[in-house]
Amino acid sequence: MTSTQSKWLEAELKYDSRVVGKHEVVMTRGQGSVVWDETGRSYIDCVAGYGVANIGHCHPDVVKAIRDQAERLLVMPQSLPNDKRAEFLSELVGVTPAGLDRVFLCNSGTEAMEAAKKFAITATGRKRFVSMKRGFSGRSLGALAFTWEPKYREPFGEAVDNRNVDFVTYGNIEELRAAITSDTAAVILEPVQGEGGVRPASPEFIQEARRLTQEKGALLILDEIQTGFCRTGKMFAAEHYGVVPDGMTLAKAMAGGVPIGAFVMTADVADRMPAGGHGGTFGGNPLAMAAGVAAIRAMKREGMAEQAREKGAYFMEKLRAIQSPKIREVRGLGLMIGVELKEKSAPYIHALEHEEGVLTLQATPLVVRFLPPVTISREQIDTVVAAFERVLNGVNPRAERQAELAAAQQEQTQTE
């Protein structure tokens, strides 16, 4: 570790809240599927900002759009119409499922979930929700009510009010049928559970959720914060299931790395929210809008959904070919991939980073999650798989005390 790197680490650790665990590395730049630390060491990035850098780090179109917009206008509230905001809304509605043509703009996935909650209440006049066990919906007090994992809720006690939330086992149709009633405002679910272990829903489960919500007068809200924008091999994961929800929460990859969020919905849902019923200072700011226009156009022009389909299938095929008794299952959709092990994944994630120069994530204590940019090459995929096979063969998790300490850091997952 260089003295300069120690300086930056020291400063961040000194002044940071310490809520998020820190790796002992300082990242300074990125391009495509590769990031570099301050020593100049390169890493193949299969974290991608928790699934943000779908189109790669520093995509040239996004960089240019940000530069151009920064010289023109940086901020403008949504009460004052803006040319770039109108352009972005047109681009976004042009790729969302038919009928989802009204948009509330915000800054993150958590904010999008907060908006979805309020729009569902005003649209239905109801206050009960159905959410999924192992689901993750964000860490604000409102979104935490939909998040299953107790460790996120328990520190805040009764301030997290989930008395109006019924949790059902993801994929269990009978539990879903029992939970959805005439009191249900909305069912909220991820088409692929990310933090819950990279678990794609079955078509039958999603389709039954759509049928039941329509039957009971409730909304179906799909959390596409991580699955959206080509990650799963479609522009949105909903397209895999042949359903159109009443709303989708969006964020992460929508602007190529710039903070952004949105709740897209039907006109009927939007029109039932009273004027002034929700808002935000920075939502729809021109800089994020410019980045979003460039990002969505790049996704379409470069066929990134098809790339994710093809590369995801190739990646999973290579992972499944690894001969290791430590692997229980390889699963995923597109380039959202999880490898469930028969022992804790943290030591292997630690070894991938420090020994092999590959960045990955946890998804439950047993799962190694791969979320590379869609721009990752097949050669880079081969490098990642070879590195993973080496650490599976070489790491003794019981002897890796340092890796055990790193587990707490690796459990810090997407908050937005």
UniProtKB/TrEMBL annotation:
One of its GO terms (molecular function) is transaminase activity. Pathway: Amino-acid biosynthesis; L-lysine biosynthesis via AAA pathway; L-lysine from L-alpha-aminoadipate (Thermus route): step 4/5. PROSITE patterns: AA_TRANSFER_CLASS_3. Substrate binds at R139. Keywords: Amino-acid biosynthesis, Aminotransferase, Cytoplasm, Lysine biosynthesis, Pyridoxal phosphate, Transferase. Homodimer. HAMAP family: LysJ_aminotrans_3. This is [LysW]-aminoadipate semialdehyde transaminase. The lineage of its organism: Bacteria, Thermotogati, Deinococcota, Deinococci, Deinococcales. The gene is lysJ.
